[in-house]
Amino acid sequence: MADSEEGFGLPTTPADSEAKELQAEAKQDAQLGATSKSPTSPQAAFTQQGMEGIKVFLHERELWLKFHEVGTEMIITKAGRRMFPSYKVKVTGLNPKTKYILLMDIVPADDHRYKFADNKWSVTGKAEPAMPGRLYVHPDSPATGAHWMRQLVSFQKLKLTNNHLDPFGHTMPWTCDEPVAFPPFQITQLKIENNPFAKGFRGSDDMELHRMSRMQSKEYPVVPRSTVRQKVSSNHSPFSGETRVLSASSNLGSQYQCENGVSSTSQDLLPPANPYPISQEHSQIYHCTKRKDEECSTTEHPYKKPYMETSPAEEDPFYRSSYPQQQGLNTSYRTESAQRQACMYASSAPPTDPVPSLEDISCNTWPSVPSYSSCTVSAMQPMDRLPYQHFSAHFTSGPLMPRLSSVANHTSPQIGDTHSMFQHQTSVSHQPIVRQCGPQTGIQSPPSSLQPAEFLYSHGVPRTLSPHQYHSVHGVGMVPEWSENS
DNA sequence: TCTAACACTTG
DNA sequence: TCAAGTGTTAG
């Protein structure tokens, strides 16, 4: 597993040789992007702001690959459900003293809704109208580069929901996506095997007998053990042969570029599964979470529990050696609600908003990467070079938005050049499903306004989501905070 | 199509 | 012991 720096990268299996080549290409592109641009180009300007060395590495990449291979999905609920695998990244190259805000965005993959029938996905209609999305601000934000780099940055607590009125600021997914046939069994099995909370569904003899007993008692036909296993195993599925093997498929050979200063290295990338580029522009609702007892603050509180991986050393020798655990930072927050109060910033960017669209700012190389349906961008910028004072979840008025806009406008030309993309497929369930499209790093089009924290529970999202087959793209973007040494 | 209850897990 | 997070299941 990802227990070293290398572990964040591509597996060292022969099948991934293409991926390694891509990785090398991406690094080369990044270097070129950082060095070959004219000083007056946006790219160069971006680089000059100290963004050139920033890298984001996906944690547990192999697990992500497994889910990607079978087409990941998740059932979402009104209460919100966590993503699995959880999204954790290692960030390097930040200015240790500069403060950054780290965001995760959800981007729709297309404007269709689909159903899974007859072992295939088919379009059942048009997606519901685009709605403002939400950006999930990492609860540690703003924090210094040193803080972000100290250990894994975890979005484990991020929940996805289809509840428009969700009062906790859980991220709402977007309707989408592609008609690719993958049976749900494999994803289910992967989650059961890997998610501790789903251990109850792991197949032990006793468990299966118990389950069968329950089925019997409810007048279900008695199903042979082999059949029971078949349900959750991919081995007997019509797609088993091609989906159980974890490898870098030919899709890994797809070209992509990663050439701006913010380098989401190819290590972040998962092989694309399908050629469905994101087509839907998204406006924004910025939301973040904060602790009930501390309010969102513009300063870093030493007592606040980091939402980054709290004990990476336990699972990752790399951090064991490189990142000594912090002491005295693990204030315990018992409940989710106590841990995370939503700081949600509604925005209704009009079509004429000068803010660049998603396509404009972040996906300009998609035509060359048709296999990817999502775009991830990582953008970080030293705050001390930006024309605003601070950005936090604590603001009590709207000036943030223009400031944030300025950030986005400032950086968007470069953002478009760097993206890591990968896509996951979904499968069927009678519950709302989210298609997890993988980490995305990036500042997207900025919201037109921000609301004070007191409004964060308001829901500026009067839109009806289609409940099924949601597609989510998640990732991080870093918006710079001010620099302490400026 | 959607929801809530269920049995199970971890912490 | 409890809260919270899982996929399954029935209504």
From TrEMBL:
InterPro entries, sorted: p53-like_TF_DNA-bd_sf (IPR008967), T-box_DNA-bd (IPR046360), T-box_sf (IPR036960), TF_T-box (IPR001699), TF_T-box_CS (IPR018186)
Q: In what ranges is there compositional bias, type Polar residues?
A: 33-45, 227-243
Q: Does the keyword Transcription regulation apply?
A: yes
Principal place where this protein is found?
A: cytoplasm
This protein's GO cellular component annotations are:
chromatin; cytoplasm; nucleus
| SUPFAM superfamilies (UniProt xref) | p53-like transcription factors
Give start and end of each T-box domain.
58-172, 181-203
**Per the record, which residues fall in region Disordered?**
1-45, 219-243
**One short Pfam family name for this protein?**
T-box
Q: Record's SMART domains?
A: TBOX
Q: Which PROSITE patterns match?
A: TBOX_1 (PS01283), TBOX_2 (PS01264), TBOX_3 (PS50252)
Annotated protein name in UniProt: T-box transcription factor 5
